[in-house]
Amino acid sequence: MNQIYILCVDDEADVLEAVERDLATMEEVFPLEIASSADEARQVLERIDAQGAELGLIFCDHVMPKETGGEFLSWLDGQPQWKRSRKALLTGQAGLEATVSAINNAGLDFYVSKPWTQEGLLQAAKRLLTDYVISRNIDPLPYMSILDATRLAEHSYKRGLISDT
């Protein structure tokens, strides 16, 4: 089983701490990495790639120094090994134009506005990681207890991995 990572990129340390706290229940199955800039995120991605692991989900702030989250997610979407990763903009300051640009140019899958609730962030992560597992045709069994078990079971049934008898 390949390791599937979650990455959160934000230039504010308190936001990174909040994401770590709110997604802690998922870390046993989906290790969480954090980065405070796009450059640092690229270094994390290099480590993940070197391990032969996958990036299942990235939460990225939009307003960051040097490179916006939209720009970084557009770059990420252009990388073959990360193209299928689920991408979520996590921000409280992105305007409509920046959000539309991220959706159109960065393959954005979800938008989470700050401040978020723990339950809202967990639900977004579960939904997006379930989508990732299904889209990659990954054996869903190791993820049934933490993701959307109903959707994973339906997918497994359709693929012929399980039967109704």
UniProtKB/TrEMBL annotation:
Domain called Response regulatory: residue spans: 5-129
PTM sites of type 4-aspartylphosphate: 61
Keyword list, A-Z: Phosphoprotein
SUPFAM superfamilies: CheY-like
InterPro entries xrefs: Bact_response_regulator, CheY-like_superfamily, Sig_transdc_resp-reg_receiver
Pfam families associated with the record: Response_reg
GO terms, biological process: phosphorelay signal transduction system
Superkingdom assignment: Bacteria
Listed name of the protein: Response regulator
Organism: Pelagicoccus mobilis
